[in-house]
Amino acid sequence: MLRMQNIRKIFKTEMVETHALRDFNLEVEEGDFVAVTGPSGSGKTTFLNVAGLLETFDGGDYLLDGQSVKGMNDTQLARLRNEKIGFIFQSFNLLPDLNLFDNVDVPLRYRGFKAAERKRRIEEALEVVGLASRMKHLPAQLSGGQQQRVAIARALAGRPRFLLADEPTGNLDSQMATSVLDLMQEINNQGTTIIMVTHDPMLAKRASRNIFVRDGQVSEVGKEDDIVELLHKTAQVG
Amino acid sequence: MFSYYVRLALLSLRKNILLTGLMIAAIGLGIGAAMTTITVNYMMSSDPIPQKSERLFHVQLDNWSPNQPYNEPNEPPDQVTWLDATNLLQEGRAFRQAAMGGTSFVIEPSQAEQKPFIASGRATSADFFPMFDVPFIYGRGWTANDDNSQNLVVVLSKATNDQLFGGENSVGETIVMGGRAFQVVGVIDDWQPRPKFYDVSTGPFNEVEEVFVPWSLKEPLELPLNGNNNCWKPVGEETFSAFLRSECVNSQFWVEFEDPQDADNYLAFLNNYVTEQKKLGRFERPLNNRLMDVMDWMEYREVVAEDAIMMMYMAIMFLVVCLLNTVALLLAKFLGRSGEIALRRAVGASRRDLFLQYTVESAMIGIAGGLLGLVLAWFGLQGIGGLYGDMTEGLNELDLTMVGFAIVLAIVSTILAGLYPTWRACSVAPAGQLKSQ
């Protein structure tokens, strides 16, 4: 469903060449809940950006839903992002001037849905995250956890195959983090594939699969491995 | 999506009123200054008789001194002599032709309480009225027979008819001009071609004359000249007849063709005429006769003043400066929203989508700036009217075309000013922005 083969990503400046991903190989099946861990600077976020089609790559091939994204132009990539991928960010990235309804509406606008269809999907998505009654509120009127729920609703409204989450609970207290994680788990249970970058061992433990990224390369973490210990080591390396 | 972009633009513009106001003010000032001068130029250079301007031709004959041209390098006089105008009129080779010259009359109203007054006049021939599509409210122009018979007939302007007859139908009435009774045959409706193309010698934006009389009366009544008179050699005797038959140029001659192609034949006729006149000792210069249609004639006479053109260029430069300021303000505004841009890119907006969104926002600033510019242009034109008075009457009015032009100019200018900021905004790398929010 998501297959990366020997992906290479190099960031170049005048002085320095940084190999963010080197021969990065990964296969994610439909319905997986994958936690991506690794030390700071290991390439986790670069991987997530490449997977989310926000960054191009310099070598290898990337198949999303069986379709190679190599050589696609900006419009094709934008359409693919819109139709197949939902994003959840650490800092929510809600648009402060738009109310919750309009925030969730943003990806649907680019899909070209009719107004009635958009309305139905927005209401459904906000219902799922428990904020249907507050759809006319502005993001600033919500708590951090509620804002992240709106971001999840925005990601869900387009009914994507993949949900890519970058430290989704990084800005939340533990109670809110648990609540958001429960919600993500529920979404995954309903069939949406989730790939989540995290430093949080609690989050990583709840994923069905764990992969570890170091120096731009990936290794699978077996279920029997002690993820907490691995992450502790990660912190020491980072 | 367009209405969505409009809504987003309104939200964005409302968010920072000060910045938005600055941009609108910059565009408005630029458009206001540009439109003020462009309007004056546009009115000066507009076609005064568009329905037939390409079929109306002004005649120039080079009867000037053999030793030097009328104007360098080899330009013939702008006017013709009374003699040549009269001769060409008698030949009648064109579909229509009109000889004409400015004059003036002392009019003695019939009502005792009204004082005599001096009225500007034009001696011309019968074709003047149909040639120039002169509108009448009462009666009509005189006939060729009136010309030939030297009948004392007159056509009044609407204002003169209002003054003498209280606006009533005066056709058939008589008025006393210069001590003679003239019969009114027609009253012209409001008519003010701008420029006053048929005689620009005393000013292309002067008022239309108050009375019109037959050309054939000029000699017998010794009608005074009210206009430019240029001579290259002295008039022999000091008589009116000698003055009329001199080489002094003080009359205009216009012809109308059914087909503009007929101009070639008429020019050949003019050359033959001059060749014949040479045998009489006139026209000592080589053949140098000209026919110019209305717009060519306006351009030749430089009806649009040079200082007006210069002012327009300066105002356009000012608009460019205002637009450069707008570029900087838009750049600050758009790049300040890189987080939003990145988010929209992440959730499926292509660069094209964002380009359209920000172009719509630029255009909306342009519309607001254009409307402000129109208001400022109106004040500017009133200011010009106040400075120059009657000279600019009719030149300082914004017509619908100019209003539309102002709005289009504002929108196009602002979109152009917004291109670079929009391009920069669309080039924002979403990945970095999303992480750093």
From TrEMBL, chain A:
Organism: Pseudidiomarina aestuarii
Signal peptide (UniProt feature, chain positions): none
InterPro entries: AAA+_ATPase, ABC_transporter-like_ATP-bd, ABC_transporter-like_CS, ABC_transpr_LolD-like, MacB-like_ATP-bd, P-loop_NTPase
Residue ranges occupied by any ABC transporter domain in the UniProt entry: 2-237
Keywords: ATP-binding, Nucleotide-binding, Transport
Any one GO MF annotation of this record: transmembrane transporter activity
GO cellular component, one term: transmembrane transporter complex
Pfam family, one: ABC_tran
Protein's recorded name: ABC transporter ATP-binding protein
Family: Belongs to the ABC transporter superfamily. Macrolide exporter (TC 3.A.1.122) family.
Top-rank taxon: Bacteria
From TrEMBL, chain B:
Protein name per UniProt: ABC transporter substrate-binding protein
Top-rank taxon, per record: Bacteria
Transmembrane regions: 21-44, 310-335, 355-380, 400-420
Species in which this protein is naturally found: Pseudidiomarina aestuarii
Assigned keywords, A-Z: Cell membrane, Membrane, Transmembrane, Transmembrane helix
Domain MacB-like periplasmic core: 20-218
Compartments, record wording: Cell membrane
ABC3 transporter permease C-terminal domain segment(s): 314-428
Location (main, coarse): membrane
Membrane topology classification: Multi-pass membrane protein
Keyword Cell membrane: yes
Pfam short name (any one): MacB_PCD
Cellular component GO terms held in the UniProt record: plasma membrane
PANTHER family the record matches: ABC-TYPE MACROLIDE FAMILY EXPORT SYSTEM PERMEASE COMPONENT 2 (PTHR30572:SF18), MEMBRANE COMPONENT OF TRANSPORTER-RELATED (PTHR30572)
Single GO MF annotation: transmembrane transporter activity
